[in-house]
Amino acid sequence: IFGRMKLRSQLTLLITLFLVSCEPDLERIVELSWNDEQPKLVGYYSVTESENVKVKEEKFYEDGQLEYIGGLDSEGLRHEVWKYYYPNGQLWSLGEYEHGLMEGKKEVYWPDGTMRYQGQFTQDEKSGTWIFYNVDGTILEEREFTPKASDNPKN
Predict the structure, then answer these.
(1) What is the per-residue pLDDT across 4-58, written as a single tens digit (0 to 9) for each?
(2) In this structure, are residues 44 and 27 in contact, taking their beta carbons and an 8 Å threshold?
(3) Is the entire prediction scored with pTM above 0.85?
(4) Least buried of 7, 55, 81, 92, by fewest C-beta within 10 Å?
């Protein structure tokens, strides 16, 4: 039984190393700074032989606290998850993007970390049930949204 556990651990390590080595190397470039020691805006670039593409961006408050972080597509449009933070480090909002359009979940929090509202986006428009909360966490309102694009029948 110990031999199988050791083999399983070795396989897990090899798979992890393989997956990490397959990820492209990202070059971190400070694009704007508050001062010599504190970056304001940092870009992460996928470096290949033919081009450098910015794939992620971080912005910082003057004290060094992260303000936001998010991914970019090859055209420089917001892509995947973007997170914004209050100056105290508490998560402010989380939103999903697909090639510049909001697509997927959206969550916004009060400064103390309790949910402020949550919902979904479909092609940059609110869709489905959105729930809005009071600062004490109780539900203030539930509202249904239908994207305008789905109102138009396809010809």
Answers:
(1) 555 555 555 555 545 444 555 789 999 999 999 999 999 999 988 788 899 999 9
(2) yes
(3) no
(4) 7
